[in-house]
Amino acid sequence: MGGGPGASSIDYDAPMLPSAARLARSALVLALPLAIACRRGAEPSGPAPAPAPQAPLTAEPPPRVPGLAFPLEPASPTALQAVPAFPNLRLTLPLYLTHAPGDPAHLYVVLQDGRVLRFPNRPDVTEQEVETFLDMRDRVRREHTEEGLLGLAFDPHYADDGALYVYYSASRPRRTQLSRFTAKADDHVDLGTERELLRIEQPWGNHNGGWIAFGPDDLLYVAVGDGGAGGDPKGNGQDLGTLLGTILRLRVGAGIDGYEIPAGNPFIDTPGARPEIFAYGLRNPWRCSFDRQVGTLWCGDVGQDAFEEVDIVTAGGNYGWNLREGKHPFERGQATTALLDPIIEYGHDEGQSITGGYVYRGTRLSDFRGTYFYGDYVMGNVWTLDREGTEVRGHARVAHVPFLASFGEDAAGELYAVSLTTGIHRFEPSDAAVAGRRFPTRLSQTGLFTDTAALVPNPGLIPYDVTVPLWSDGADKRRWLYVPSGETATFHATEAWSFPVGTVTVKHFELRAAPEAPTRRIETRVMIHERRGWAGYTYRWNEAQTDATLVTTSSVDDVALPGGTHVRWPQPAGADCLRCHTPGYGEALGLRTRQLMGTPDGRALVSTLLERDQLRDAPDELGSLAAHPRLDDEAAPLEARARAYLDVNCAVCHHPGGPAPGGLDLRVDTPLSRTSVLAVAPEERLGIEGELRLAPGEHAHSSLWLRMGLRSERGPARGQMPPLATLRVDETGRRLVAGFIDQVPPS
């Protein structure tokens, strides 16, 4: 049983193993947490097989938005080659690569022996530039080849609080442990700041899981293996009374003693179940990830004798282990709940230890945008999976990386592959014609404007305005809509409109120092309805104000305005867009009837679409349709204006099925009594005596109002609302909401 000799046979400070023969002899000695160990059949030996030859693949360009330069979907995936990302670095047993919020210039690499290294994200980085960010070798257990420092997650507010979380093997008793640390002012971790949050005793040394990450909901997710040995002899995978064989979801952070159980966890009210559990029935989930654009949780679960699997993990899901391996019966027994099938599985003729990956959201490999990358540790195969809804539309082997321990992302969403033996790789197209195809990286390349410097729109773009603008730190905004010729949008009186594939919305931002001062162009944001769904992109304007460049990494910029005034501006990357442009509310946020019918330019947009025969299901008479009141319309009821403000700025996330926790529903049509805010205690308190989500008649005790006033100069403050893309408080909106709360009568 086991993957070879223990850690005592490995020199962690030795140089990388240079020869193919030595690699072959050491392949299973280095076998680590990927849990090919303890299968019932014979274990593989010798070097990983070379990839089979691939059929020639075409370099046809992907379909694009008619008249514009945006691709609608990737072409059929083209073959890739893995090349050294940092050829000057030699790393010993790297397991994972990530980045820290607020630090897009660096990468962090987890070593199995208990260290985390940091270095500049440059291809020519040298070993002299590598720093030891965290060294906890004195407390990391390495008696089994699958033990070690296995996971690292930076707090979403790391730039402010310096908090990070690690998942590692420890002794006395043998366990996996989740701890919080704090980085010092010099950006190195003080071991004295360790605070144990959770320990899980391990009956055996293998199947430790090890992935941890914060989800779009700012909650911490933790992947835990079934406890080890072979075949799950204790039946942990189907036992809700143990944390083994699960994905956990925890609330952690400032002011929380250890961790708390989020109110939405699925087994809180299940007798005998651990409330920390988010999903279960997993054998050894080795590397999971959230799609940074849509929030879906993907996970690779290592198989036993015959099958490896990729799962989409959802709340309360039972993924079948050990009743099933993949989709196939494994042990006799009766499931107490429905078992969820993997998205895809592969047999041991193709690989023997899955390594979960990421949905690619970068820009360097435009053919692969929106596809899921994953691989196999033993055979080194790398696959892409193209999924639309519940249907797998494409599945192809695209590259080879030996001893593939993990994938990783940098702040821009570019993808890396981490090999236990050959270091960190990036991917490049094998075909030169494909390598030349890129997503438009300058606004002038998109076709949106016939004269970008003069901001003259493409004739196909229709200008429009909204009644209640989303708060954007006081920026002036212009908006356009593009619906491809011959295609139609669908009208809805109260819900989101639907738009055809190829639809593009454009929102342009400018800032000024004073109401009558000249403006400075800041950014232009673009939303595209691609064939997989909506995607967002941001272009940052240059100093000359002649063109804008695609933003790949979110940042906080110092912007000089005409007249010498400087302001701080939160610059979101495109991957941040769908955190607000949510499917449940409608990704095209301002294109709703209430927003359009309250302004002349909005009504003109509706008329133009009708004239072009591009809007279906619209009523003959538009004048009677409900519209939001203007926020400055003193003749409109205060409640109507405040509810319109909350609908536009908050309901995009706070609606049934939305990404925000807590069950709030701030849509304007929801009666106040059913919004889950009226006299309800908040899950996360701000420390105000008598605090409620909405305290009738007392705005100073209402977290709804209090959170609107939270901001930080360095980036989003913990608990602020809206949660991103704003550094300045909307004082006008805050006064409006305060007045509304103060007139709400006690229930």
Set down the secondary structure blueprint.
Blueprint: H1 20-26, E1 80-84, E2 94-100, E3 103-111, E4 115-120, E5 131-135, E6 149-154, H2 158-161, E7 163-170, E8 175-182, E9 195-201, E10 212-214, E11 220-224, E12 246-250, E13 277-280, E14 285-290, E15 297-301, E16 307-313, E17 324-325, E18 328-329, E19 344-347, E20 354-359, E21 372-376, E22 381-388, E23 391-400, E24 404-409, E25 415-419, E26 423-429, H3 432-435, E27 449-451, E28 456-457, E29 462-464, E30 476-482, E31 489-490, E32 504-512, E33 519-530, E34 533-541, E35 548-550, E36 555-560, E37 566-571, H4 593-596, H5 600-611, E38 615-616, H6 638-649, H7 703-706, H8 731-742
Parallel strand pairs: 31-38
Antiparallel strand pairs: 1-26, 2-3, 3-4, 4-5, 6-7, 7-8, 8-9, 10-11, 11-12, 12-13, 14-15, 15-16, 16-19, 17-18, 20-21, 21-22, 22-23, 24-25, 25-26, 27-28, 29-30, 30-32, 32-33, 33-34, 34-35, 36-37
Helix pairs in contact: 6-8
Question: Can you describe what's shown?
Answer:
With 747 residues, the chain is mostly beta strands. Among the domains are: 80-435, TolB, C-terminal domain (Neuraminidase, 6 Propeller), CATH 2.120.10; 630-747, no CATH class. It contains eight helices and 38 strands. It has a six-stranded antiparallel β-sheet. A four-stranded antiparallel β-sheet has the order 1-26-25-24. α6 packs across α8.
Could you name the key traits of this structure?
747 residues, mainly beta, Neuraminidase, 6-stranded antiparallel β-sheet, 4-stranded antiparallel β-sheet, globular, disordered N terminus
Summary, kept brief:
With 747 residues, this protein is mainly β.
